[in-house]
Design a protein that fits this description.
Blueprint: E1 13-21, H1 30-43, E2 60-63, E3 71-81, H2 87-97, E4 102-109, H3 115-118, E5 121-128, H4 132-143, E6 149-154, E7 157-162, E8 167-175, E9 178-186, H5 194-205, E10 215-222
Parallel strand pairs: 3-10
Antiparallel strand pairs: 1-3, 1-4, 2-3, 5-9, 5-10, 6-7, 8-9
Helix pairs in contact: 4-5
Length: 242
């Protein structure tokens, strides 16, 4: 009989980590970031807890990762530890060994509950090379349209879905001679991304960027306040599972 693997002790502490993808690091894929973060945990000697089984792996949980090519100030993960540590010390140690542009912004002790359950909305800015008046007209048409169907390849194959239903707010602002779109998205299934909204703007309003690619930046991600439409702080938000 195959020898049974050693069972690991349960974690004694969980930390929530906020990190950013800046500059050229916006082209880092989620998988590439995961490899870089695991190396950083090892180099910083963070006492990460491991799973049990024949192939133990670090107990790191990712949630709500932005698409490759998007910059972000609000990416999150949760780290399970085998020892009690000072979150501020872990933040400094990890940020020192992470590649420039993949920056550790904040580390706190987890308040409990599921991190994924509190990531219910995101706030983005999208910079596009379009005159402000043209962008504002396209946004008006999009918001006046009840249903905007788009297609995207997903893990389940090509899917058609309504991107309009996930848009909580969309405003066009002047950004010099070009435009900046301020977008707030509700996280739904399938996940609606900013590039889906850009596809919707092209479909219903004819917004044409030519060969240029929009510059996507996520500013916030967290629990949605339905009363105000604002996005809260997931590092300190607690969700009880029923």
């Amino acid at each position: 009989m195959r020898e049974q693997p050693e069972q690991q002790a349960p974690p004694v502490q969980r930390l929530r980590v906020r990190y950013a993808k800046r500059g050229r690091m916006r082209f880092t894929s989620h998988r590439d970031f995961g490899r870089a973060f695991e190396r950083a945990v090892f180099r910083a000697r963070v006492p990460v807890a491991y799973s049990s089984g024949f192939n133990p792996h670090p107990r790191i949980s990712y949630a709500g990762a932005s698409p490759t090519g998007a910059a972000s100030e609000a990416e999150y993960l949760e780290l399970a530890l085998a020892e009690i540590v000072d979150p501020a010390a872990v933040q400094a140690q990890l940020d020192e060994v992470m590649p420039a542009g993949l920056d550790i912004v904040d580390v706190v002790e987890s308040p409990g509950g599921s991190l994924a359950d509190v990531l219910t909305a995101s706030r983005w800015v999208i910079d596009i090379p379009v005159q402000p008046g043209v962008a504002a007209a396209a946004v008006g048409t999009f918001l006046d349209t009840a249903t905007v169907l788009v297609e995207r390849m997903t893990k389940r194959g090509m899917r058609e879905f309504d991107c309009r239903a996930a848009v909580l707010a969309l405003v066009a602002e002047a950004n010099g001679p070009a435009s900046r779109l301020a977008l707030t998205l509700r996280h739904v299934e399938p996940m609606v991304r900013p590039d889906d909204v850009m596809t919707g703007l092209r479909t219903v309003a004819g917004l044409d960027l030519g060969t240029a690619a929009p510059l996507l930046t996520r500013l916030e991600q967290g629990p949605l306040d339905a009363a105000t439409g604002s996005v809260g702080d997931p590092l300190r938000a607690h969700v009880n599972r029923i």
